[in-house]
Write a structure and sequence with these properties.
The protein has a 6-stranded mixed beta sheet with strand order 1-2-6-5-3-4, sandwiched between helices. A 5-stranded mixed beta sheet has the order 8-7-9-10-11, sandwiched between helices. The protein is of the alpha/beta class. It has 2 domains: 8-161, Alpha-D-Glucose-1,6-Bisphosphate, Chain A, domain 3 (3-Layer(aba) Sandwich), CATH 3.40.120; 176-265, Alpha-D-Glucose-1,6-Bisphosphate, Chain A, domain 3. It is 33% helix and 18% strand.
């Protein structure tokens, strides 16, 4: 058997919804394989799951939940929530794993399954490889692998208390008076629509939201983090009305910004501003910033 991962990429398992590896049969098998992996080390394994607003996210989440339930794994669903929200809940609720159903900035026809360890971080490559082997073993075995009549908890609407806990934690970590800040926010018709309005209100920010009416098929469609120029252009045209522009991607694990003049602020500049702020408050460990090889060495 190959020692190289065939299903897991850098952001979990991705593909076209309805086709392998994201068919109704294979998503159930993925849930079973993960469940079997988890109960080997913890017979009382618990998992938290969340999803974005794609049309397919609901049934994929349901099928994964059914596969997990087949091994007795308890599943808590947060419903529509951001990817960082699931990572936070996995750690704070001390569960065995966190699962996100999303394909990030990709079109609505795509989807994906991303798995976090109980510490809120991405699974190690070796663990993903072990789960892959479980998946292929189930797929190659005889018998009822698809379990069309499998039962399990419904993933939507999910527990509003889980989403609220994440929003409250985010708000608690915001300091200073932001009541004078006027912000234009692009939610990409994605997961940010479930959290951003409540969070910005709680922080006292005057926010106007764009692309915040998901219909299952309009996620990332001409909006979101792939199109930060939209918010930048609007701010420039409405000169003086906004101090800041924020653009999320479909699962809101990425944010791009524009300034009050409608100029896009790139990722390297955001890293620099964040690092300087943290250093000034004594919260930057070792006064060190770690970036990828794609970052400008001018940092």
């Amino acid at each position: 058997m190959s020692n190289q991962r065939q299903l897991f990429g850098t952001d979990g398992i991705r593909g076209v919804a309805g086709e392998f590896p994201l068919s109704r049969e294979s998503t159930y098998i993925i849930g079973r394989a993960l469940g079997h992996d988890l109960i080997r080390t913890n017979r009382g394994a618990r998992v938290v799951i969340g999803q974005d607003t794609r049309e397919s996210s609901r049934w994929i989440a349901d099928r994964v939940c059914q596969g997990l339930a087949a091994h007795g794994v308890q599943v808590e669903s947060a419903g529509v929530i951001t990817t960082p929200g699931v990572a936070y809940l996995a750690r704070s609720r001390k569960v065995s794993a966190g699962i996100v159903i999303s394909a990030s900035h990709n079109p609505w026809t795509d989807n994906g399954i991303k798995i976090f360890s109980g510490d809120g971080y991405k699974l190690p490559d070796a663990r993903e490889l072990a789960i892959e082997r479980e998946i292929f073993a189930f797929l190659n075995s005889s018998g009822d692998t698809g379990a069309a009549d499998a039962s399990g908890p419904a993933s939507l609407p999910g527990d509003a208390g889980l989403r609220r806990a994440y929003i409250e934690w985010l708000g608690h970590n915001v300091s200073g008076d932001l009541s004078r800040l006027k912000v234009l926010v692009d939610c990409a018709n994605g997961a940010a629509t479930a959290e951003a309005p409540e969070l910005f209100h709680a922080c006292g920010i005057h926010a106007t939201f764009l692309h915040a009416k998901p219909d299952g098929k309009n996620i990332n469609e001409g909006c979101g983090a792939l199109h930060p120029e939209n918010v930048a252009k609007s701010i420039k045209e409405m000169e003086g009305q906004f101090d800041l522009g924020i653009t999320f991607d479909g699962d809101a694990d990425r944010a791009l910004f524009s300034d009050a003049q409608g100029r896009i602020v790139n990722g390297d500049a955001i890293l620099l501003l964040t690092a300087r702020d943290m250093q000034s408050r004594g919260t930057l460990p070792g006064d060190m910033l770690v970036a990828t090889t794609m970052s400008n060495m001018g940092l």
